[in-house]
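Appendix B, example 12.
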Amino acid sequence: MLERTARPLRGLGNGLASAVDGFYRLAGGPGRLLQDLLNGSWLGHSLHALVVDVVVGGTTVVLFLDILRVAFGVDDLAIASTWALGLATLAALAGIASGLTDFKDTPPDSDERDVAVLHGALNIVSSAFFVASFVARMGDAHTTGFWLLLIGYAMVTMGSYIGGHIVFKYGYMVNYNAFSKGRRAKSFTAVAVAADVPEATPTKVMFGSTAVMIVRRGDVVHALKDTCSHAGGPLSEGELVGDTITCPWHRSVFRTADGAVLHGPAGTRQVSYAARILDGQIELQGPRD
């Protein structure tokens, strides 16, 4: 039902995602750092999930204080509710920025992107009501502020439900490898002839049924799971720069030695393997915990 409702927003979603992606590309290095901040790569998971908890929790507190004031005549709550709403509103603005940053990497022309647009639209409009409520309260129009808050709260509740739908149905901003870590081997297992693997070139090999990207430099080999933790892109088709590999889909950057995230949108370390060359064979063990 949500997918059918959101489908008319597809054109808007594709255009918005392209605009946000264009902004970050135009911003260059500083834009990359801002994207890392808003994606939450430094946290190990989405920043958006953190800040929207503040929005929902903060506005719930404000609504509770308002009900105590309006329905039960409890005095001296106006100042507390105003500043609690101010905090929630700042978090809502951070939620919009982080949400748009995550949104740009959703698959184009997909139900996932369509529903994400509906989710974002509700949250943006609800944030406008929170801003209006805060302004009204600063002018001592607390009753007006209450009704504006109530409308915004109803909208952010719907938006939160839809956000949960995106996460639980589509795995939005969830570690792509969480439930498919692949083969585990306690002993080293041969996967390729070393001489057949080009020097300093991302190369895909099969470790049982698991695709692994290896990079050989002389007798040193690094190995990461080929499937990007962000959205499943093939790292073996990415760009190798120094000791880093860039995913070809959304430009997440990982350190080849251990899979550490250097740039988002990925937030989860890439699965890595111990690797060695023995008797002319490249052998893998793991993955590492």
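The two ends are 40 Å apart (CA to CA). The beta strands are 185-193, 203-207, 210-217, 220-225, 239-241, 244-246, 253-255, 261-263, 272-278, 281-286.
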